[in-house]
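User: Let's play a game. I give you a shape written as tokens, and you guess the letters that built it. Ready? Here's round one.
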């Protein structure tokens, strides 16, 4: 049996990815992500451009002490400047001084760019490419040559574009990577041009696609099928303008759909966790509907769909989500049928007699609550408590007798909020007060202060996110609001919801659910 053809994965999250709007990584962030990418099994990690800023210089210095198991770290830069020797070019010297074993440099393939951006001759540009690759090779580095704007250049002047990559190959480049820098090419064009390149040069070919036409992943796959054997991209597709080819889609498509060998099977099962980790470190929101690794990638909402997947997951899933480290989810909303509730009950190991009227009653209650503004898709913890109430009363742990919020503001000073609580806990009446940064924080502090002596584990819980959504803006300050609270104990994360015309009441409801859920599942 023939072994699968190998495709090399080149991750440029730490370089090209950081050019995306709103993306800023510290050196510590970059080191953390590099370690995660190495565990994922990528073959090259592009760490940055040491000739452009001190942050990247520090990264390359510190990464030397990190023991990577799979990946080679590569430094990025451009070909030499016009009119000087490569050995005298400061940017190329910085690459050599960075201590890497692999250099990735880009040069111009499009004659329009040569004459307009570089303002030099076509002959000098080819000399710049050849001299730069030769110099880095003489310094003992593996050289990856990124042919910038190659596809646009080829479409405008094919012979010149081909001459530029011939020069890189003759000078000793290990890889020639064809870049769709403006992201405007179509898969058919990619296939045709990569095929021509493969018949023109003998060295290994790669693809670097941008997503300006929403085709970076498709173009990357087309290039591989046409003979390229390296894919450059970023985690979650972050990058300048519309982003780069999303490796979180490229890798499973190549490996699970097309049969290429990219990373190990066990490593592929870490893809979802790695994708979410990178976005967490970069302080970016994970798109809920991102293929393969997004929270909704294998989520089912419609009752007919859920009924079918209970019979067999293949009815509405294109592959087993565990292959990429994700999981099947069933959402409960106003679209829910009995199958959705059945699935959630099974997930919670709740023994439910589906002949009972409670099954239909809970569906009706959820639909009524969602009509009022509740949303359980993003509040699984509140949903679980609702189900447990319907099919067997859970322990309440505590009940509220009353609370009072006092907000005091004097002159130009910052306001002070105080919450006074009276609770009934384990047969005792508890009366306490606490201050906070705002009324909700004060209420949260008072609740924890009252309950911690009875439930010490509460000290390990903390709010990690708090969102308020106005539901009916036309009602102005009397509008109903929905509060979503995310809580964590450093091991698990759970979400709860509250709805009211009063933001404090809505927050209290979500706070109470967050504590009750944690105590129920301790």
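Assistant: Ready! My guess for every position:
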């Amino acid at each position: 049996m023939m072994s699968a053809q190998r495709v090399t994965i080149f991750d440029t999250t730490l370089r090209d990815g950081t050019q995306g709007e709103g993306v800023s990584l510290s050196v510590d962030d970059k080191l953390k992500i590099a370690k995660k990418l190495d565990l994922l099994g990528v073959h090259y990690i592009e760490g940055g451009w040491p000739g452009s800023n001190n942050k990247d210089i520090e990264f390359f210095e510190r990464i030397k002490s990190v023991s990577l198991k799979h990946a080679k770290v590569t430094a990025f830069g451009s070909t030499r400047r016009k009119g000087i020797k490569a050995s005298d070019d400061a940017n190329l010297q910085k690459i050599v001084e960075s201590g890497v074993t692999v250099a990735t440099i880009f040069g111009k393939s499009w004659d329009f760019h040569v004459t307009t951006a570089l303002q030099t001759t076509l002959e000098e540009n080819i000399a710049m490419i050849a001299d730069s690759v030769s110099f880095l090779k003489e310094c003992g580095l593996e050289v990856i040559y990124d042919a910038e704007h190659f596809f646009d250049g080829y479409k405008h002047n094919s012979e010149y574009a081909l001459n530029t990559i011939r020069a890189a190959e003759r000078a000793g480049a290990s890889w020639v990577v064809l870049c769709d820098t403006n992201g405007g090419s179509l898969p058919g064009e990619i296939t045709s041009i990569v095929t021509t390149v493969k018949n023109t040069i003998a060295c290994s070919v790669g693809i670097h696609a941008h997503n300006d036409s929403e085709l970076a992943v498709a173009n990357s796959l087309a290039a591989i099928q046409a003979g390229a054997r390296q894919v450059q991209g970023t985690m979650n597709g972050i990058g300048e303008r519309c982003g780069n080819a999303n490796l979180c889609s490229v890798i499973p498509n190549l490996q699970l759909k097309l049969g290429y060998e990219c990373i190990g099977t066990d490593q592929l099962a870490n893809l979802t966790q790695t994708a979410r980790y990178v976005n967490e470190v970069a302080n970016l929101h994970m798109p809920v509907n991102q293929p393969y690794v997004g929270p909704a990638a294998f989520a089912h909402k419609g009752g007919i769909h859920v009924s079918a997947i209970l019979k067999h997951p293949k009815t509405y899933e294109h592959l087993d989500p565990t292959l990429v480290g994700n999981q099947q989810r069933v959402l409960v909303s106003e679209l829910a049928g009995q199958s959705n509730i059945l699935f959630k009950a099974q997930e919670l190991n709740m023994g439910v007699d589906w002949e009972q009227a409670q099954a239909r009653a809970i569906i009706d209650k959820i639909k009524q609550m969602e009509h009022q503004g509740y949303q359980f898709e993003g509040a699984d913890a509140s949903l679980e408590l609702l189900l447990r109430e319907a099919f067997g009363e859970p322990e309440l742990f505590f009940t509220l007798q009353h609370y009072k919020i006092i907000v005091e503001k004097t002159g130009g000073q910052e306001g002070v909020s105080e919450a006074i609580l009276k609770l009934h806990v384990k047969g005792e009446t508890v009366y306490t007060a606490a201050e906070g940064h705002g009324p909700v924080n004060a209420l949260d502090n008072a609740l924890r202060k009252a309950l911690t002596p009875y439930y010490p584990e509460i000290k390990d819980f903390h709010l990690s996110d708090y969102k308020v959504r106005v539901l009916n803006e036309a009602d102005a300050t009397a509008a109903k609001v929905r509060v979503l609270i995310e809580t964590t104990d450093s091991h698990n994360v759970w979400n709860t919801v509250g709805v009211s015309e009063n933001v404090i009441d809505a927050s209290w409801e979500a706070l109470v659910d967050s504590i009750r859920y944690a105590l129920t599942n301790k």
